[in-house]
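So, can you check?
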Amino acid sequence: MRREKKRMMNNEHSDCKKEKTGSRKYELILANLHKEGFYWQDDPPCGFSMSDGKKLLCRQTLLGYLKTKWLGKDICYFPQMHSTNELASRLAVHGASHGTVVMADHQTKGRGREGRDWLSQPGSGILLSFVYKEKIRLQDLFMLTMASSVGLVQALEKNNGLTAKIKWPNDLMIKGKKVCGILAEARLCGQNVDHVVVGIGMNVNTKMDEWPEEIKKTATSLNEVQGKWLNREELAASIMHECEIVLDRMQKKGKEEILQRWRNKSDTIGKKVYVFQDGKRFLEGLALDVNQEGALLIEKESNGSVIEIYMGDISIRANEEG
């Protein structure tokens, strides 16, 4: 993080359950945020509204909805910060427990895949990152993204009655538009995975008419889809609960069941797509399936050969959408 003008922060919601972790390192990291552009003031009550009428998340209300065993039992919450993934990774390095969650109402330097920015409106979305410390093989890292996307789809179905689809590699789509993205980042020690941070950014009460035209063409929000204001605390708790269920299932039963659930919810398999890498289109063909590591199998339109795509972005061809 670079030094910049100090940001207003909320003291109560910045505690990281220190009474449970007992880690002095947490206190040092959070105290150092003051030097890196943040400072604290007296806490507003839960439901505190910003100047534009949007309400801040309430950590205590969220905890009241939470039904998890390990995911979200330690929660760090800030009204505003640079990046939830960045802080979650720092906390993980210094002893944060498995399942620790970092949440923000607004990110000033939110990240998407391949270094892209993740834009967010204050007081409107769900921005959270969680620390995953279960043993996982390097070649199975992408399974955390796939499993989390399945959990997100389940949360939207159960909590909101919405049908979402998963676009490879990491987007949730509703009616052909992106509503949520996932960014998983791993810290390696040699060939071993020390921990993974899974970041989730979801447009909940986002007013899409406030976005640039190019974003409005491809993105949407739950508020826009359902035409009503949604309870973000309840939905965030549901997301943690469903992700925990799917991740526990993967640990106990292996990844084949998760892969099949992902296939059933896929917005990609069976469609003709363009594949982009480094911003350039280099391939087009039919998306056949995913392999055991989550790579997308593409039948090339040019010669019918099948190749595995481990990284990149796809665009579903216009006549294939829907």
Notes: The chain has two domains: 45-264, 272-320. Residues 232-253 form the longest helix (22 residues). Confidence is low (pLDDT under 50) at residues 1-22, 36-45, 49-53. The two ends are 41 Å apart (CA to CA).
